[in-house]
Amino acid sequence: MAIVIIDPDTLTLANFDAFTLALSNSWGVGVRGKNNGLAIVLSPKLRKIRINTGTGV
Question: pTM for the complete prediction?
């Protein structure tokens, strides 16, 4: 499980969802083979929250 608060200047509403999914995949959140990761990404600047789950959750 990962909880991330992020506010880079290059992040926009258009690429927020794709960025959070790529971040979860690159960090390898969860147990390999079980695909049970959970990532919660918050952006106070954009006022957005994204919850990414693996298919094993």
Answer: 0.83
Give the end-to-end CA distance of the chain in Å, rounded to a whole number.
11
Q: DSSP secondary-structure letter at 33?
A: T
Name every residue whose Cβ is closer than 8 Å to that of residue 14 and which is 6 or more positions away in sequence. Answer: none
Mean pLDDT (whole number) for 43-51: 93
Composition of the chain by helix, strand, coil, percent to 5: 20, 30, 50
Give which of 54, 47, 53, 55 is closest to 5, Cα–Cα: 47
DSSP H stretches of helix in 1-57:
16-27
